[in-house]
From TrEMBL:
Species this chain originates from: Saltatorellus ferox
GO terms for MF: carbohydrate binding
Protein name, per record: Cna protein B-type domain protein
Region (Disordered): 952-972
Keyword field: Signal
Length: 1213
């Protein structure tokens, strides 16, 4: 058994920084099966038949051309949501501009790409069919001759138009307003050539599988790029009695994935389907019976009087189902749960059938027990095989009786009662999403209050107090909190009817009424269970038309509500109003400011017009994204989801083109006409950036100044093809690696300026080749990774491979990638603490001997609930493995051989350091003081790497860390001032106060080295903290003026028990650095646009504050470095640093992980394809210039003199 090791190495910093930045984004994933066999690298045999002469009589009837749904069935004109609205339009073919007859056109409440996904998600909220109806088409019609269509008698609102035809696909999302007057049209819907996928589902004996459920989706390994092109597909179909199915209107592309499940067959995948324009792709799906899983459900807490020991009492009548790991199976998750579902017998035993191969989670629920995920089962790829699972223990959960009543106390029958079925927080960071699907179990449905309003809620998941919610159309969501204790108590949930908002809307300049507008309010009470929800950011508003500009909103939740008014040609208007329950708020008079109108053209590099480009502005993007975030926040609040990140007010720059292409901006983006022209209305006056996107070009933008009115000069936006990457993914022996996902992430993706923050994705083909086009020039981090056969999310973390590359502005370059996990050693084992397996966590393995561009290899593996872990592929070498998760962290060293497999068990250390802080002035305990325990006596930048490791691993495990730790590994003292650090390895440590507002009140404690023996507990007793001292002063520029926003850094000299202190200068340049201890400190000012100041030594004395400091910043020299190899060829991706030699030791402690991360992801510390990198501004003096890449590094001394700019050169061999 391997004991924990404390060794850390400095070269890990770069990879950890890279991954910490990437963790902001969660990867999608993507592998396959034909004829029910194991997922293989061989693609299915597929026919492409442009003439529909397939020669397969069983499929002949599907070839008919007519108004089709995505599943190939004829769809008649119909209206689901009736009202006075009207809309006319045409469906046209892009290029020929001819009208298309027989096209099915739908009015959708959400973008077409998300409609089916949201309908599927609704199956797992357990609230009946109401939610799924809200995302279904409001109306359907079929185009006539010339492509014309019309909707009559439809509910007014803002709707998306979905269009489906056998061999055509919508060119771009289109939204329109359906109004009583019909003024929202006419609208043109453009389509381009597409294909169909038709086929038949057969069982293992070749018999048709009637009513089989089929899903056709975009390749998971290319999902992001497909989204950026607007071709993301999530289509569902049901086979007819002969097992036949059809998907119409599929975008031409490679790598489609098809999944099918039906009676008598396990879920089967067919991968690498190619759809060609104007053709049919014919596929045969042949399933197998799957495997069987036996097991037993027991109660983790026995019922009173049963006489059974906890964990041994069998649970009869429990529902059990299997859900394979991985996103590939989730597209048919509901059907998987239904197909494998069974009920336990009196002995608690069960038998699941039709279980697919791979890693499979068991999901169970029972009366009086909380739904939970059980043991992980590895199912062999052997039809009919039987697997024995470990006992599955369910925890009992509390139940509560209650009544749903109105404000008068009268019962409210028919209210849907909701609660948290599981503890959502416990799922975050876990390797399985299975618990989230508990509400999709066959016999589960949330209860409804009876005629007396009575209900029983539970068993309740999570921690108390529990929240019970009641939903019913016409009422505000009712909420009540309950804590176990009085089991006979009845909880009362009160539902409110709400009030009304009345008002008028007029033009702020002319005071004339605005005749047509949309009003949205988050507090609107749902009245129609089939209509778009108030949470819908796309169609949740209410349309008003009338010459008087008046509106009335009934059924608005009481209290303070925010109302938003949108009208074409005007700026958005927000107002806050207090709504009294049962009455009307004071009438509003809302005056809309007319916006500006801007026209322009989108052209290519030759000046030719580009039709179908999407044009928007930064302001319109911010408005649309704010609407999306408000909707998300309202849903999470309504569902009582806790612990989510705060709302953003702008999307990550790297996802802009995806949001635009998928239609998520709604009317915030307009499409260019056939002559490339566009018109934007309702713009705010002032500087504006106009952006244009098209799938065949790199995004373009132009800056302009917009004035109110219609007199703005037209603008022209030129789109070019941009740069690109192509290459091969191979293993370490040079053999091609198929189905690797390649991501290119620019350093500014989360919002920085570099490379416009782009994100690109590609999938390696059979020969390992990949290609990315239409890229912005600049540096990119390249990540190559592969999922397992079922594409479990965590499996991608075990195959991560990194590189850095610079993409030229208008040229495609070659860049090959090596997947070190392919053809490597499979490492398995158990993680234990005190001899018992840990229940969850993450292992991070880092190898410093990699030949990759970053000089290291990084892999991750989840720890399962039985303590087991698997690294699917580690190349030979020494790895540092860090555990983070269930309990204290730990570090290990593993030597991986050049062999097929290694079994390595990991035992976590159990050393402890504890103590207590009190104030010297008051003698009282110091609560809420953040401190960190750091290892001493290490080589390299151990402190930095420890912080980076914790950030990365805790980001993966989705939490703040165990034992109340923050992401930097610090802990806060408790009410009695106590602290405790567990899981410590043998070695030397020191306490460090984290530089936050609380610690600024105290001076650092005396620096004492702490020695911890093997599994030893060290009690430091009571530590007395003296009050902190302050440094005050001014930061001035060369002219003697204050520098607002300048940062002043104070670094302790010879006092390691305190982190560096920082302060920001105010408008006058004044600053105060607090929380200093007696002793020597070195102070340095810095500010954007200035050279960093020199370190100045200051002595803080006992009993008195220091004299006021005057710190001066100068412009200095602007320095750029050029890195070349021995032959003079520029080297890209090299990290460069320029520092004063005498300052390095002092400033090393201040260069924490946040600084490192910000430098990397702003693109400021690696050279480009010309070997160039800006270093910033520096004062004259003698410096040391360092350059490093992987294991190669060099340095030289340079002397800076004078002012202006200077280029330095260094050779890295």
């Amino acid at each position: 058994m391997r004991k924990a090791s404390g060794k850390l190495a400095g070269a890990l910093a770069l990879a950890l920084a890279v991954l910490a930045g990437l963790l902001y984004f969660r990867f999608e994933d993507g592998g396959a099966s034909v004829g029910g066999e194991s997922l293989s690298f061989e693609g299915p045999e597929v026919d492409h038949d442009p003439g529909l002469e397939t020669g397969r009589s069983a499929l002949a009837e599907i070839a008919e051309v007519g108004p089709l749904r995505s599943d190939g069935e004829t769809r008649d004109a119909s209206v689901r949501l009736r009202g006075p609205g009207r809309l006319r339009g045409r469906v046209l073919e892009r290029g020929s501009e001819r009208g298309l007859e027989g096209v099915t056109v739908e009015l959708l409440p959400v973008p077409p790409a998300g409609a089916e996904i949201m309908a599927q998600v609704s199956q797992f909220i357990g609230s009946g069919s109401d939610f799924s109806q809200r995302v279904r088409p409001a109306a359907t019609t079929v185009t006539a001759f010339g492509g014309e269509f019309s909707f009559e008698g439809v509910r007014e609102g803002r709707w998306y138009l979905g269009a489906t035809a056998p061999h055509h696909v919508a060119d771009a999302p289109v939204s329109a307003r359906v109004l009583r007057s019909g003024d929202g049209g006419p609208v043109d819907v453009w389509m381009r050539s597409g294909g169909r996928v038709i086929g038949q589902v057969l069982d293992g004996r070749g018999r048709p599988v009637a009513k089989a459920q089929i899903a056709l989706t975009t390749s998971s390994m290319g999902l992001l790029e497909a989204a950026a092109d607007g071709v993301t597909a999530f289509l569902r179909a049901e086979a007819d009695r002969d097992g036949r199915f059809a998907f119409a209107g599929v975008s031409p592309a490679e790598g489609y994935e098809l999944a099918a499940i039906g009676e008598g067959m396990a879920i089967t995948h067919v991968l690498d389907l190619e759809v060609r324009a104007g053709e049919d792709t014919v596929v045969e799906v042949r399933g197998t019976i799957g495997a069987q899983v036996r097991g037993r459900i027991v109660s983790a807490s026995s019922s009173p009087g049963s006489g059974a020991e906890p964990g041994t009492a069998p649970v009869a009548g429990a529902q059990v189902a299997a859900l394979p790991r991985g996103l590939r199976n989730l597209k048919l998750a509901k059907e998987l749960l239904m197909a494998t579902h069974t009920v336990t017998g009196e002995d608690g035993c069960y038998l699941l059938t039709g279980v697919p191969p791979g890693a499979v989670d068991l999901l169970a629920m029972a009366d009086d027990h909380v739904p939970a995920r059980g043991p992980l089962v590895q199912v062999p790829n052997s039809p009919g095989a039987e697997v024995q699972a470990r006992d599955f223990a369910l925890l009992r959960g509390p139940k509560v009786r209650g009544r749903a009543v109105d404000v008068s106390g009268a019962p409210v029958p028919g209210a849907r009662i909701l609660w948290n079925v599981i503890d959502v927080a416990s799922v975050e960071g876990q390797p399985s999403l299975a618990p989230l699907f508990a509400a999709g179990m066959k016999e589960f449905e949330f209860p409804v209050s009876d005629h007396e309003g009575a209900f029983v809620a539970g068993p309740l998941g999570g921690d108390s107090p529990f929240e019970i919610r009641a939903l019913k159309s016409g009422y505000e969501v009712g909420r009540a909190r309950w804590e176990p204790g009085d089991e006979e108590a009845t909880v009362e949930v009160v539902l409110h009817r709400g009030g009304a908002i009345l008002g008028s809307v007029s033009d702020a300049l002319t005071e004339a009424p605005v005749a047509s507008f949309t009003v949205s309010v988050s507090g609107r009470i749902e009245a129609d269970p089939a209509a778009p929800s108030r949470f819908n950011p796309f169609a949740g508003g209410v349309e008003f038309e009338g010459e008087d500009g008046r509106f009335e909103l009934a059924g608005i939740a009481g209290g303070e509500q925010e109302l938003t008014v949108l009208a074409r040609g005007y700026l958005p208007k927000r107002a806050v109003v207090h709504v009294p329950e049962g009455g009307a708020a004071p009438e509003l008079e809302l005056k809309l400011e007319p916006g500006a109108t801007l026209r322009g053209l989108v052209v290519d590099a030759e000046g030719e017009p580009i039709a179908g480009a999407q044009v928007t502005t930064e302001a319109l993007i911010a408005t649309a994204f704010e609407r999306l975030e408000d909707g998300r926040g309202s849903i999470e609040s309504a569902l009582a989801v806790k612990g989510r990140r705060r709302q953003r007010r702008a999307p990550p720059v790297g996802l802009l083109r995806h949001l635009v292409a998928l239609g998520f901006l709604g009317e915030g983006a307009v499409s260019t006409a056939r002559d490339g022209s566009f018109e934007l209305v309702g713009l705010d006056a002032g500087p504006a950036e106009i952006l244009a996107f098209h799938r065949d070009y790199r995004a373009g933008a132009v800056l302009t100044s917009v004035e109110r009115g219609d007199g703005n000069s037209p603008v022209t936006i030129t789109l070019t093809e941009g740069g690109g990457l192509r290459g091969k993914v191979t293993d370490r022996f040079g053999q091609p690696v198929r189905d690797a996902m390649v991501l290119a992430v620019s350093p500014g993706m989360a919002g920085g300026p570099t490379s416009n923050g782009e994100l690109h994705q590609a999938r390696s083909r059979v020969d390992g080749a990949y290609e990315m086009l239409h890229m912005e020039g600049g540096p990119y981090l390249i990540v190559a990774t592969r999922g397992d056969e079922n594409l479990s999310i965590m499996s991608f973390l075990g195959t991560l491979n990194f590189g850095l590359v610079h993409v030229p502005e208008e040229r495609v370059v070659t860049h090959h990638l090596v997947d070190t996990s392919a053809s490597a050693c499979r490492v398995t084992g158990l993680v234990t603490r005190g001899g018992a397996p840990v229940s969850s966590g993450m292992l991070l393995a880092l190898n410093l001997e990699s030949e990759g561009l970053l000089g290291l290899d990084f892999k991750a593996a989840p720890v399962e609930n039985d303590g087991s872990y698997v690294f699917e592929g580690l190349s030979p070498g020494e790895y540092q493995v860090t555990f983070e998760g269930d309990g204290p962290s730990g570090e290990f060293l593993i030597d991986v051989p050049d062999a097929p497999q290694l079994v390595e068990d990991l035992e976590l250390p159990e050393g402890v350091v504890r103590g207590r802080f009190v104030s010297a002035e008051s003698g009282e305990a110091v609560q809420g003081l953040r401190l960190r325990l750091e290892r001493t006596g290490r080589s390299g930048s151990g402190g930095l790497l420890t912080g980076l490791t914790r950030r990365l691993s805790q980001g993966m495990t989705g939490g703040r860390g165990s034992g109340g730790r923050w992401r930097d590994g610090s802990k806060a003292t408790g009410r009695q001032g106590g602290f405790r650090f567990d899981g410590l390895d043998e070695g030397r440590y020191r306490l460090v106060l984290v530089g936050d507002a609380r610690s600024a009140d105290f001076a650092p404690p005396e620096d004492v080295e702490i020695r911890v023996g093997e599994d030893e507990t060290v009690d430091l007793g009571t530590i007395v903290l003296d009050p902190g001292r302050s440094l005050r002063g001014l930061v001035l520029d060369g002219a003697g003026d204050g520098v607002e926003g300048a940062e002043v850094l104070a670094i302790p000299v010879g006092a390691d028990g305190l982190a560096p202190r920082r302060a920001l200068a105010d408008a006058e340049g004044a600053f105060e650095v607090r929380g200093l201890g007696v002793g020597t400190w070195k102070v340095r000012p810095s500010a954007e646009g200035f050279a960093a100041g020199s370190l100045r030594e200051v002595v803080v004395e006992e009993g008195r504050d220091s004299e006021e400091l005057r710190l001066t910043l100068v412009l200095g020299l602007e320095i750029e470095v050029r890195v070349v190899d021995g032959s003079g060829t520029p080297r890209a991706g090299v990290a460069c640093f320029l520092s004063r030699a005498e300052d390095e030791a002092t400033t090393a402690a201040a260069s924490g992980s946040s600084t490192f991360l910000s430098q990397f992801f702003s693109g400021s510390n690696t050279t480009d394809s010309e070997g160039l990198m800006p270093l910033g501004r520096f004062e004259p003096g003698v410096y040391r210039l360092r350059a490093s890449q992987g294991f190669s590094s060099t340095e030289r001394q340079v002397e800076l003199e004078g002012t202006g700019t200077r280029r330095l050169e260094i050779v890295l061999r």
